[in-house]
Amino acid sequence: MKKILLFVGIISFQSIFSQSFIPAYQSRVNSITQSNINSHLTEFSSYGVKTTGSTNNTNALAWLKTKYVSFGYAASQIVEDPFTVGTTNSKNLVVTKIGSLYPNTFVIICGHFDTIAGPGVNDNGSGISIILEAARILKDVPTEYSIKFINFSGEEQGLNGSQHYVNNIVNASTPKMDIRLVFNIDQVGGKAGQINNTIVCERDESTPTTNNAASATITQELANCTSLYSTLLTTIGPAYSSDYIPFENNNEVITGFYESNVSSFPHTANDTYTNMDPVFVFNVAKAALGALQHFAVASTTILATNETGNDFDNDAVRIFPNPTKDFINIEIKNRNIITYNFVLTDAAGRMILQSKNESKIDVSSFATGTYFGTFTSGEIKLTKKIIISK
Ligand SMILES: [Zn+2]
């Protein structure tokens, strides 16, 4: 529900990085797929106008539950949070993953699934699709902090679901729920036919001001993670008019993502899949998952079975074969990539090979084992687990 305000962004300077690049985070980011994003968006669209309290709204909530179940979350982790505003009944859906070191401190990643006047594929099927991918990929990844994946309803009527959650869950818990930060994703679909390459990182610039400095810090970290784990550019802007605001008013620390090419279609029947940019959502998902791992302090060890060696292949580059015994080939698929570097590190993180603009790399002298190949070109950074097997 953000279309009223005009936004003026400030280009952020990315020279000061308070985060270092973590190969395991990139590996998980690389397991986000465009086809999953597209499926989430089109399925979300198929439930039609999901006005808070409507049958479509209820059906969309049920769809969300089946998604989390399919990712392997236990029934006890998936909690419906019902609320009533006037004569309207609806539910938030809250999925909790417990942290290893700080089980009672929560990183909240949230977005609303209710829509108004249209299917809301951008506002906010885009945010929901990203939260689903993040939940799928992090299901078995240890994080030091607990994570709540929250799908809010009632947003379009005035942040009703999130306000209910703050009043009746956060503040009604004993002791009050300890929230590390709230990361809201709302309307990150961009515009079809345009170059959508920049994401707005939103920080708290409103009252109460006691939490503003902390928000500025984590919003800069969000921008840094965006640069580390995606190809997107960032701007910093003010947080307003979405589900982080009730948390902000509760003196929690907030940040958020919002599109920089602001679409005029939200809150109309034209907020459809074809009018937005699914590739932008895919790129925002990478930035979001990189940042979420940073915020929740995810394991830096690559363990999951979906992270074992295979060919790396995306729109920009293909790195193959994997496993390999003698050579690694680097096939550049994006003609905008002129120069690139490739670094191979061993399992202990020691650099054992460095090359520039080479398409065929001899690894025949290295022992059988697990390595990490990092490809960089300008803003693009990709790290892949590579198996050398004799
Ligand atoms: Zn929205």
Automatic annotation (TrEMBL):
* Taxonomic superkingdom: Bacteria
Provide one Gene Ontology biological process annotation: proteolysis
MF terms (GO), sorted A to Z: aminopeptidase activity; metalloexopeptidase activity
Where's the Peptidase M28 domain?
96-288
Question: Where does the record place the Secretion system C-terminal sorting domain?
Answer: 319-388
Record has Protease as a keyword? yes
Matching entries from Gene3D superfamilies are given as: Zn peptidases
Keyword Signal assigned to the entry: answer is: yes
Q: Tell me which EC number(s) this protein carries.
A: 3.4.11.10, 3.4.11.6
* Keywords for the protein's UniProt record, in alphabetical order: Aminopeptidase, Hydrolase, Protease, Signal
Q: What SUPFAM superfamilies would the database entry show? A: Zn-dependent exopeptidases (SSF53187)
Q: What is this protein called?
A: Aminopeptidase YwaD
What organism is this sequence from?
A: Frigoriflavimonas asaccharolytica
